[in-house]
Design a protein that fits this description.
The structure is a single chain. By secondary structure, this protein is an alpha+beta fold. Helix content is 67%, strand content 12%. It has 13 helices and nine strands. The protein has a five-stranded mixed beta sheet with strand order 2-4-5-9-8. Strands 1-3 form a two-stranded antiparallel sheet. Helix 11 packs antiparallel against helix 13. It is rod-shaped.
């Protein structure tokens, strides 16, 4: 196999230089290919002149002259490869010529190493196979034909008669048997590659159109979000104005009545009744404005807090209302829950509004369940479950429960639950609600640790 390999290396080098586009314009790669070619030919020369394997019929001086000629030719090929435009008909014919020249080189060594029985005979098949892959069926057949002609012509002196005509045919016909199917396979591969390239170009065009469409959608989405924000702001402003107008008008009316009462000399108890009404209305407006201001505050002040202590302090805050409404408290807090890094103020507001909502739903008694545990579905998160046994929330109201001032139909609500959800989301968590009529309502908070 040594004698075959030393000749096949330059052929393989030519194949890389022609077929592989990545190598076409890289000077270092072409220099490497040239070096491999020259070293391969030198190896072949050394092999045929080896004293232990010497079977060449040519003298060494003549062999050196041929060797120099082959080297010179390969150097010319190397230079011309940079001059001829790649992927053109000229390039194709040039590559065919290099394969024919390689056939000549193989025929030369075949002639000088035993003629028809030379071990260099297998080199023809390699050149034909590579030419078929590189140039296709037509050029492969031409390469096979030139190889057959060189094979017979170079070895004619060994004698061609009826006794070895069958053997010569047996050796030459396989050239074409290999050239044709390999060339057909190469042509089909090339057609597939062209089709793939065409499909890739179409895909690029469609991708550009898709990208343009996505950009248009993104612009439209931004415009839509902007409009939705503007609409939400207008709706919020309208709701706040409506929400504040009634108590302010009431306060104005009460103030007018109170003025008349004072002028008529009304007793202190009657005056205090009107003053207390004004104080309650003012307190509600103040809470509403504070909630709106809190919703607009997006800055976070993170610190490590104990959720258990926070919940117990909130229950202490609602103690009087819980006892007044005859509500039982059930706490289930998983042991060894570590402190949570969060904004204490926002979490407190969220839990306070949810607990307040649950207490309001149980005016005639019930059970308030609060559970805290590690999340089973989300890593490094806790779940806070708050559940009441109130009458439940109708579906049409539940769908709008987190919209400010509106819970469905004509029923107007405040901003407590929307503020709770907004605050939890700012903390990187989620707030969910489920409710069944006659059973109660459950709030589920998922909060990162």
């Amino acid at each position: 196999m040594i004698q075959q390999n030393v000749v096949l290396c330059p052929i393989f080098g030519c194949f890389l230089m022609v077929k592989t586009k990545q190598f076409l314009d890289i000077t270092k790669t072409n220099l490497l290919i040239l070096s491999v070619r020259l070293l391969s030919v030198a190896g072949a020369i050394l092999w045929v002149t080896n004293p232990n394997l010497y079977i060449a019929t040519i003298n060494k001086e003549h062999l050196i002259f041929i060797y120099n000629g082959i080297i010179f030719t390969y150097v010319i090929f190397f230079i011309l490869r940079f001059i001829i435009p790649k992927l053109t008909r000229k390039c194709e014919y040039f590559c065919l010529f290099t394969f024919i020249f390689d056939q000549m080189v193989i025929s030369y060594f075949t002639y000088n190493t035993g003629g028809f029985s030379s071990p260099f005979y297998s080199g023809y098949f390699v050149v034909i196979t590579f030419s078929a892959f590189v140039l296709g069926t037509r050029m492969a057949v031409i390469t096979a034909l030139s190889g057959a002609m060189f094979y017979i012509a170079f070895n004619f002196s060994y004698g061609i008669g009826l006794y070895n005509l069958a053997e010569i045919s047996y050796r030459v016909i396989p050239f074409f048997i290999i050239a044709y199917p390999t060339g057909v396979l190469s042509d089909r591969i090339e057609n597939h590659l062209i089709e793939i390239k065409k499909l890739n170009e179409e895909l690029k065009v469609k991708n550009r159109k898709l990208e343009e469409t996505l950009n248009e959608i993104e612009v439209m989405q931004k415009q839509l979000i902007k409009r939705e924000k503007e609409k939400a702001m207008l709706d919020l402003a309208e709701s706040v104005a409506h929400r504040l107008r009634n108590p302010m008008m009431s306060i104005g009316g009460i103030a007018t009545i109170l003025d008349r009462k004072i002028k008529k000399g009304a007793d202190k108890q009657e005056i205090l009744k009107y003053v207390e009404y004004i104080k309650n209305e003012s307190k509600q407006m103040s809470e509403l404005l504070n909630n709106l201001l809190e919703m607009s505050r997006t800055e976070l002040e993170l610190s490590f807090i104990s959720v258990e202590k926070l919940i117990k302090s909130l229950l202490e805050e609602f103690k009087d209302r819980i006892e007044e409404n005859l509500i039982d408290i059930k706490l289930e807090i998983e042991s060894q829950i570590p402190p949570v890094r969060t904004d204490k103020k926002k979490l407190t507001i969220s839990l306070r509004n949810i607990i307040d909502n649950c207490i309001k739903a149980m005016k005639h008694g019930g059970e308030l369940y609060i559970g805290v545990k590690r999340s089973e579905t989300i890593e490094n998160a806790i779940e806070i479950i708050i559940r009441d046994t109130g009458p439940g929330i109708p579906k049409d109201i539940l769908n709008n429960i987190f919209k400010p001032f509106e819970s469905g139909g004509a029923v107007k609500k405040g901003i407590g639950l929307p503020l709770a959800k907004h605050s939890i989301e700012l903390l990187g968590g989620e707030l969910y609600i489920e409710s069944e009529i006659g059973i109660g309502t459950t709030f589920k908070i998922i909060l990162p640790m």
